[in-house]
Amino acid sequence: METVTLTHAAALARLGHALSDQTRARVLLALREAPAYPSDLADALGVSRQVMSNQLACLRGCGLVESVPDGRRTWYRLADPHLAPALDDLLQLLLVVDPTCCGPACTCTR
Questions:
Q1: Which residue from 110, 83, 109 is spatially nearest to 94, judged by alpha carbons?
Q2: May I ask the CATH class of domain 6-80?
Q3: Tens digits of per-residue pLDDT, 29-60?
């Protein structure tokens, strides 16, 4: 069994912090589908651009997303390719723990 370190605990705490806010969780779920510009994410999630900027800054600070300059604009993507399947696995776990979480019309899973 691998030794659990403070680094492991800190990484899980960062993920927990990121997921503790519904807007940040929705941003991560959107970015698992495809990279996006902040303005497009704000429009898709129905939040202001300032809110989106703050949430993306938090997710960058947590090490979960990265910004990619594109001329005068910047788009965002998940920082690690393992994150998208991990989010899928978390969603599946949540559905097992609380099967009433989502109805037949649910769009939270792929």
A1: 109
A2: mainly alpha
A3: 999 999 999 999 999 999 999 999 999 999 99
Residue type at 4?
V
pTM as predicted: 0.81
In this structure, which amino acid lies at residue 79? A
Provide the residue ranges of all domains of the chain, joining segments of one domain with +: 6-80
- The CA distance from 69 to 49, in Å, is 18
Give the three-class secondary structure for 73: strand
DSSP 8-class letter at 21: S
What distances in angstroms separate CA 21 from CA 6, 38, 39, 74, one per listed residue?
Answer: 23, 17, 19, 23
